[in-house]
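check these C-alpha cells.
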Amino acid sequence: MVSPNTPSLQGIRVLDLSRLAPGPYASMILGDMGAEVVVVGGGPGSLPIPAFARGKALINLDLKSGLGREALLRLVTTSDVLIEGYRPGVTSRLGIDYDTLKKTNPRLVYCSLTGYGQDGPLSQEAGHDINYVALSGALGAFGPVGDVPSFPLNLLADFAGGSLFAVIGILSALYARGHSGQGQHIDAAMVDGCLSLMAMHFADWGKPVLQSRGDGLVAGSSPYYRCYACSDGKFVAIGPLERRFFENLWNGLGFLDPAPPQFDRGTWPEMADRFAAAFATRPRDEWVSHFAGKDACVSPVLDPEEAVDHPHNRGRHATFGREAPVLAPIMQGLEGAPREIDLTDKTTQVLSEIGFSAEQIKAARGGNAPISGLAWPPF
C-alpha cells in the first residue's frame, strides 16, 4: 500500500525536450509532484531561469544523429511522459513524433505544447505570449477605455494557458492510462488555453460585467474594483463587489453619509473622486493595516520583491524566493523544502544507465557544450 505521504507522481519519468518557458515550467510542476524529470537539450541548455531546473537531470543529445536518436528511443522505453514544443512537423522530420515513439512505448503520454496547436491555419506561424493572448480575445479586453490594450506580463498564454493546461492534460492522460494501458498524444495550444480561460468573459462581453475594453464591473471602470494611489506613491487594490463588503469599505474610509447604490453607474464618477481623495491621505501600508480584519477587500499592490517577503506568502511557503518558485498547490507528501537545483550535465550518468559506452555517449552528444541554461534576458 502506498503511503499517503508518498509524492503523487513518484515513479513517473518525464522527458522534457521543450525550450523557453512553458514546457520547462510544466515539467517543473510535474517534478514538484514527485516525477523524475530529464531535460533533453540539443546544445547549450533549454532553461530560461535556473529555478526551472529544480529537481531535474539535464542532458545533451544531438537528435539529428543516429546515436542521439537511439539514446532518446532507449530513454522513451523507460519513460512515462514526453513534452516537446517544436513547431508542428519538426518531430516527424527528426523521427521522434508520437506515432513513431508509441511503437517503442505504447504507454507513453506525449504532450506537444505550442502556441497555435498542431493544426489550423496559424499552426506554422511564429509567436509569443502577446500574440496568443491577442488571438484569444483576452488582450482586446484588457486596458483602459480609449487607450491601447495592456496585458499582465506573459502570464496568461505561456503559463496559465500553456503550462497549466499541459499539466492538466498530462495528469488526465496518466490517469486514463491506468484504465486503458495506453498513452496518448496531447495537443496543448496556448491559444486554446487562453480561449478556455476566457469562458466567463466571452459570455459577459457586452453586458454590465464587461461591456467593452475597460468598461465594466471588473474591467476597471467601477470605482470599487480598481487601484488607488496612496500618499507614499504606492497603491492599494480594492474589490468589494458584495454590498456588505462595499459598506465596510465606505465606512472604513470615514464617510459619514450612507453608502450609495454601488451598481448605479450615475454614482460612479463622484464615488471614484472621493475614493481617490481618501486613499491619497495615508501611506499604502497604513491603509492595509487600517482595513485588516474589516472584510473590505483591500490589499496592497506589491512589487515582486515585496511579494516574496509578505508575511502571508512567507508563512505558507517558507522556502519561497525570487529564485525559488512556490510549491503549489500544497499537497500531502509534498511539504518541506523543494528539490535542489543542479545545473551540472548528467548526460554521461543518464546514458550509462541505459547501456551506452563512453564512445557512444560522446557521439550521441554530438560535441555539444555542457548545459548551462539559455541566456536570459536575450539581450
User: Anything to note?
Assistant: The beta strands are 13-16, 36-41, 56-60, 81-84, 109-114, 185-189, 226-229, 235-238, 298-300.
